[in-house]
Amino acid sequence: MTVVITGGTGFTGTFLLRSMLARDPGEVVVLSRDEPGRAHGRLLRALDALAAPSAVRQAARRQVTAVQADITRPGLGLPADRFAALAASMTELWHCAADTTLNADPASLRRVNLGGTQNVLALAEAAPPGARVRHLSTAFVAGRRREGLILEDELDDSAGFENDYERSKYDAEVAVRDWSSRTGRPVLVLRPSLMVHDRPAPAGVPDHQIGSLVSLLARMRAVHRRPGREPLTVRLPGRPDARLNMVQVGWAAEAMLEASARIAGRPAGAVTTLHVVHPQDTPAEKLWRLAAENVPEFRLTLGPAPADPNFLERFAATYFQPFLPFAWHRRSYDRARLVSALPSGHRPGPLSFDFLFAVLDSPRIERPHPASAERRPSR
């Protein structure tokens, strides 16, 4: 049995591999842009930082092979014979690689997220017919649907998108459905919400998806400390009753693997989609209350965009821009099919936000220039 995974050294891929190796999947091939020694070293350091059990770290040394590949190139940039051999040996494919930068260049996002998916699907098509395909998408393919319940089967672009990242992931899902219909091969599509680690990420582990937002808040705090003075109100545009779904990445990785193992023998050409989300949305008000307790320099509020913005509000409007549309969201996600695919009682615990504010005082956080803090590299 050979499992091929793209994005295995990224944030989600690191946790997925840790859980995967605990299940003894056989041989695992990690496709990475880095040269093999460097990619394998990054993975081992991440597993050490996550305190993975000794058996998992030993399995990573024995069973994981890193292969340098480029998902944006036809044939993944591999020699034809290497591509054919990889496809012939593959029994399962996990496509996790993506550019998750919300405000990246649209052409770059399309090249990585859509073009990369199409090139990875070509590998799946060259694999034996029984090879299983798992595509990691995002709950945010729902785009600008800000109200109501998003069903797991829905894939609708009529409301538009908050950013080009969402558009590119939507287009990738469309490509997956078209490929499955054309080839007659089933695909499991997994749509996690905003995945976070519920404690500060240790050195050696890729940062969570809101790391750049935390870095920006840390910079604001470092530059505008106001000891002994009243907190400065920062009015952000949004709904006071907004909510956002966040889920612990460790639980999400376990849930995706468990659901994958239990969903087998799907009809030819069928695409099964699961929302890998927390059963409880997080109210924005809770985040603001915690921020007030942990970042006393600011008083964050949501409401209409201020007509007379102060300096920090102008800063936020510019550098928080990729995140601000989500302050208008009140939607929730159907997870009935996910629940049916998991063992009874398999649900995430309450989400702690101590990690968010502990990170603000962590030496691990750099203080980048705001313009550089908005970007995240491809996973």
Automatic annotation (TrEMBL):
Record domain Thioester reductase (TE): where: 5-221
Domain of life: Bacteria
InterPro entries named among the record's database cross-references: FAR_NAD-bd, Lipid_A_modif_metabolic_enz, NAD(P)-bd_dom_sf
Pfam families membership: NAD_binding_4 (PF07993)
PANTHER family (UniProt xref): BIFUNCTIONAL POLYMYXIN RESISTANCE PROTEIN ARNA (PTHR43245), SHORT CHAIN DEHYDROGENASE_REDUCTASE FAMILY 42E, MEMBER 2 (PTHR43245:SF51)
Protein name per Swiss-Prot or TrEMBL: Thioester reductase-like protein
